[in-house]
Amino acid sequence: MTRVLKNRLADRRATGYVRRVCHYAETSYKLHYACVSCRVAFKRHPATAPGGHRCPNCSGPLTCAGHDFAAPARRDVKAWSVVAAVLAAGLRYEGFEPCGCGREPKFRPRTRAQLRARRIAATREGTPLAVVLERRDPQLPA
């Protein structure tokens, strides 16, 4: 960088003029896709084909897990069972904003105990499981 350009950037930062740009909106970020039966996850561009993305191991369909999905280890069968329940409920691992700019991701259960507590709360209240899975505390209403 030249000295003049560095000074311009320093002046913009000092005056508070820093343009915040949505990085997800500018570039086409890949989404996380997971195959729960094989316990693998991949990053792919959104599917445009009618069949969607296929797992390279089992040729089954890949489930879209969202932008903020962190796949558990392949040997962690218990964690993958929780991921399977969350994805089967129709939820994705996304942040508060659709673009994901600097926001914390929404709550999703990570352990089987958290999943069990939310299943019990859903049957007790008579609400859909997807609604209760989004809650940080299963006892509190949304």
Provide an overview of this structure.
The structure is a single chain. The relative contact order is 0.12. The model has no long low-confidence stretch (mean pLDDT 80). Helix content is 34%, strand content 10%. The protein is globular. The chain has five helices and three strands. It is an alpha+beta fold and 142 residues long. Strand 1 (31-35) and strand 2 (40-44) form a beta hairpin. The chain has a three-stranded antiparallel beta sheet with strand order 2-1-3, with no helix packed on it.
Short description:
By secondary structure, the protein is an alpha+beta fold. The protein has helices at residues 3-15, 23-26, 77-88, 112-125, 129-133; strands spanning 31-35, 40-44, 63-66.
The structural class is alpha+beta
Please work out how many helical segments DSSP would assign: 5
Q: Main sheet? A: 3 strands, antiparallel
The average pLDDT value, as a whole number, equals: 80
- Cα Rg: 20 Å
Q: How large is the share of residues in beta strands?
A: 5-15%
Task: State the share of residues found in helices, binned by percent.
Answer: 25-40%
Uncertain residue segments: none
H/E series = HHEEEHHH
In whole angstroms, how far apart are the ends? 50 Å
Dominant shape: globular
Strand line-up in the sheet with most strands: 2-1-3
Number of strands: 3
Topology record:
Blueprint: H1 3-15, H2 23-26, E1 31-35, E2 40-44, E3 63-66, H3 77-88, H4 112-125, H5 129-133
Antiparallel strand pairs: 1-2, 1-3
